[in-house]
Each structure stands twice: as structure tokens, then as C-alpha cells.
Amino acid sequence: MRRLIRFTRILAVALRFGLHEFIPPLAHNRLLGWFCVDRGEPGAVRLRRALETLGPIFVKFGQMLSTRRDLLPTDVADELARLQDQVPPFSSAEAAAEIERALGKPLEQAFAQFDREPVASASIAQVHLGALNDGSEVAVKVLRPGVEAAIGRDVLLLETAASFMERIWAEGRRLKPREVVAEFSRHLEEELDLLREAANASQLRRNFEDSPLLAVPLVHWDYCTQRVMVMQRMRGTPISQVDALRAQGVDIPALARAGVEIFFTQVFRDGFFHADMHPGNIFVEIAPGPERVRGRYIALDFGIMGTLTETDKNYLAQNFVAFFNRDYRRVAQAHLDAGWVPAETRIDQFESAIRAVCEPIFARPLKEIYFGKLLLRLFQTSRRFNVEVQPQLVMLQKTLLNIEGLGRQLDPDLDLWTTAKPFLERWMDERIGWRGLAQALRREAPTWAQTLPQLPRLAHRALSEDRSGALRIALERLGREAVRRNRLLALLAAIAAAALALQIFRLL
pLDDT by residue (tens digit) across 365-414? Predict the structure, then answer.
């Protein structure tokens, strides 16, 4: 019954704001249009207002949807990006009860001091300040009571709406609404587990240990559960207060460049990056020093993190460096090599499409080139060639837009290209050049030392289990070909054959 009431309210809000216009089969229905108020407002504005009316979970869904610019019209994505997740706090008594239940002890035993008034509140959790018995100042994050059940109901309704859209609208299948809702649900599950968030914070802190660029709070693991997270209290000035930072002597252009370096370090060095770097999650720590200091970033809220594989990092680095050098053939080839473009794609056509996107942008001064938007245009162009945009790259693109926007806010003259290019070229040289080869050889040497003595036995076993004889015939052919060339090649072929046999044996 409760679900039916909620569904009825959602339907009423959708009619009130004329959201039927976003579904082509219903867009010109005069009966549905009669219920719409504020018909003079653009559809994107009405969609944002509808989500705000429906409450925090739908606001969060709109925020996530705004990152899928590969699926949305630009005006809709821009409007949804304006959604603010500002929610009144729940009562201090409820917060105290949740914390005591999670920690299994009264607040007076767990904390030497606990501020009952929250300092921050959002749709899923809120934060209180306090101090542990050893004097450590802490921030205590606690989930809202019953938030899991409320989210479950709304996500189920979103799944129903997504299935309905796919059934009545052929174009809905291309937009993949069910996959979008599934992605949203996965992010919410991660944010509802504060132990996972604590682990993310701990990993990021370890990655930037003793860094002059980024500070991450220490996690107090003895006080963390799935519903409560206790971490070091961080003091700093919100990144959005540029005038206050300037008054404290912070070198604002240097701070902007440091933000770019932090981003690329997370992406290319660690393959583990903070994927929710909006201004509300970033502070600046001012350490004693000279008159003009750079300051150090403070990262908060680690519920959404992105990860990249070595393949992802290589793909991105090659694309970025190729962009810097305006080498569009290399950009196209990087897509093909990564397997994200169908094998039958004509690389010259793909190269031409990429050139059409990039050349008008490069006609501008470097400081007017927005790298995040360029990446977005590339994703949109790639869709014409049936490229499946990878979810981890969509999250990365959203983070890059945040970082670039933040950098421009700090320093309108920030040249992201000049700042990032040396870093990327150095990383490419270290990972893909001869230094990278040497590092890979050193890294794999212990495995080779263990595996090489076993190769004859493993090869024999694989051959003995080769019931069809295909492997034996292939190896014999390789051996005969190698002997015809010379003995050195024969030795190399034998090693390669043994490695192939080992690989097949592992698959058996």
C-alpha cells in the first residue's frame, strides 16, 4: 500500500511538471499536457524541479544522471548538474541512538565529547563533531535511520519506470534506462556501507602519505561499523571561499595547478581516484610558512571512488598525449587497440570524425580549451561508431569536469594542457617506454624464476591431456618452422610453445 501511495505521488509530480514531454510517444498528448503547470519553463528546468520535489533520493539520482552526458542532451545534463543535495538533519536523539546501537556502548563511554548538533547533513547521512577519550578530535558520520528501506522502495519504482520506458519507446532501449538505474543502485549500495567508505579513505590516505598536495583524514577503525564511521577531524577553508583563501596568503594559481596534479596522480599513478570532487567535499589547509603559500587540499566524503585497470590507464594516457599533439590517427588507433570500437571499423573514417570534433576546439587559445568537454564530445562522436562507453570512464569524465571547473574557478587563466602534458609524458615514458619495460621485467622476474623450471613438466602434462591432438600438431609445426630458420629461433620457439602449453593447461 505504501508503495502504491508513493507511486501515485511520483506520477502526480511527473504530470504537474509535464515530464511526459521527455517520452516521444506521449510528448504531444494534450490530455497529459493539461495537468502541466509552468508550461513556459524549459523542459530541463521542469525536470530538475520535479526531482527536487520528489525528495533526496531522486535528487541524488538526478545528480548521477547528470554525469551520463553520453546519454543526455546538453541542456538537460547542465540543468541536472545544478541539483543540490541539501537535506534537513534528523534529530540528535535519533543520531545518538544509531551511534550507540552501532558501537554497542553509550555515547559517554565512546566519546569524551560529542556535539549533538550536526555540522553537515545529506540525504543518506549526517556528520557530528566530537573527541575520543584519548583527546583525538573526530568527525562522526552516521546513516539516517531507515534510509535503506526508503532507498529500496524508490529504486524499485525507478526500475519499474525504466522498464516501462523501454517497452513503450524504441529509442529508450538505446538510452539503456535499466542500466542507468542499476548503476545508480550500485552507487547507493556503496554509499550505504560506511565500512567501505572508511576503507576507501584509508587507501587514499596511504596513497598520499606525507604528500604536500593532499591530506586525507585518519580512520579510527575501532569506532567504525557499517552504519557509523569515525575519522580524524580536518580543519580548513572551503575551496569555494576563494577570497578568504587569498586573504590568508594562498597562491591561488599554484593551488589550481596542484589540483590538476592531484587528479592525474590519482588516475595514472594509482588507478584509484576520488569520484565526487565537488566543492563541498574539498577544503584547503593553511600551514605556517612564507607569505604566499600554496596550501594543501583536504579531501572528504569517500563514498564514491573510481578505479582503472592498466589497460584503462594506457588508453587514457595515449589519448591525452595524442590530443596534446593533435595526432588524431593515434587517438583512433587507441580506441581500436582497447577493443572499444568494432574490429571492422574503418580507422580513416573514425580518425576523420575525431578531427572534426577537435580541430575547431584547437583553434582557440589554450586557456579557453575545456578538456572535460572535449572528452565528452569524443564520447558522443564515438557513439556513432558503436563504441560502448565504459562506466569507469564516464565516472572519470565527470570527475575531470569537476576538477577542471574547480581549477577555472580558482584561476580563470589555468592552462590545463600545459599543466598536464609534462606529467602525462613522464608517465608514458616511465610506463610504456624503455623504463617501463625494465620495470615490468623486474616485476615479473620472480614469477619467471618459479615458473621456468616447471615448464617441461607442465608442457608434458598439457600434451598428454591434448586428446584432440591439435596442440601437439601446432607445436610440431612451430618446431619444424623454427628449425628451418636457425637454432636460436628454435630455442625461442620451444620456450614460446612451452609457455603456450602452460597457458592452455591453466585453462583446462
Answer: 556 666 666 666 766 676 677 766 566 666 777 777 777 777 777 887 77
Taking the mean position of all CA atoms in its chain, how far away is CA 368?
Answer: 25
Residue range 4-57, pLDDT digits in tens: 676 677 777 777 777 666 666 665 666 566 666 666 678 788 888 888 787 777
Report yes or no on 78 lying in a domain.
Answer: yes
117 and 230: one domain? yes
Q: Which residues are catalytic?
A: 276
Among candidate residues 126, 135, 282, 132, the one with its CA nearest the CA of residue 213: 282
Residues 273 and 319 in one domain: yes
The phi and psi torsions of 211 (rounded to 5 degrees) equal -75, 135
Report the domain count for the chain: 4
106, with CB counted inside 10 A (0-12, 13-18, 19+), is exposed
286 burial class (0-12, 13-18, 19+ CB within 10 angstroms)?
A: middle
> Would you call 142 helix, strand, or coil by DSSP?
strand
Residue 494 lies in a domain: yes
Q: 224 and 284: one domain?
A: no
* End-of-domain residue from the set 234, 257, 272: 234
CA neighbor of 273 nearest in space, from 402, 149, 167, 178? 402
